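User: Sequence recovery, please. Input:
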């Protein structure tokens, strides 16, 4: 993957597996804002949101967590804990080079500090954990680009059930 100065929402969607609508919703609800926000043009339209390479890396991690069942509320809690408890952005905690390293057991996300302290960022980020033994089944979080295209369902839909207004059948009464 060749790095660019900015990525469009369409490019980010293709690389992360998120949809353009998810990115728009996350931006509108302040979960994750684009570095270059959309703005109104003189012609009455809007410019496209733009994302930096750092934004892209963070979105890859968030998308991977989302695919593994982490709710949007828990993603918000994770980002908030990194900012308030450790004073870092998500990209500073991935890759093992920052002041904290993020690990997961598939359910929760943990921070390991340079001094070896552990914190559960989704449960109680202010309370250090007592860790007995090694890190066991914990896996370090990293940014991964999605490969290939997503599978499409009926009528080109992307893995969703048709909405009633889109011709889906009504549930039995």
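Assistant: Recovered sequence (173 residues):
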């Amino acid at each position: 993957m060749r790095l660019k100065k900015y990525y469009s929402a369409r490019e980010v969607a293709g690389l992360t597996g998120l949809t353009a609508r998810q990115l728009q919703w996350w931006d509108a609800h302040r979960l994750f804002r684009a570095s270059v926000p959309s703005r109104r043009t003189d012609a009455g339209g809007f410019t496209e949101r733009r994302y930096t390479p750092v934004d892209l890396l963070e979105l890859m991690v968030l998308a991977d967590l989302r695919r593994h069942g982490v709710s949007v509320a828990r993603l918000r809690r994770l980002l908030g804990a990194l900012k308030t408890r450790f004073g870092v952005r998500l990209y500073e905690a991935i890759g093992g080079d920052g002041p904290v390293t993020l690990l997961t057991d598939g359910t929760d996300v943990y921070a390991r500090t340079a001094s070896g302290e552990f914190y559960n960022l989704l449960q109680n980020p202010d309370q250090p954990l007592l860790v007995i033994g090694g890190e066991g089944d914990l896996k370090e979080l990293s940014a991964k680009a999605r490969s290939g295209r997503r599978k499409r369902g009926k009528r080109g839909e992307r893995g969703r059930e048709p909405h009633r207004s889109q011709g889906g059948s009504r549930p039995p009464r």
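Helices lie at 9-16, 20-28, 53-67, 72-86.
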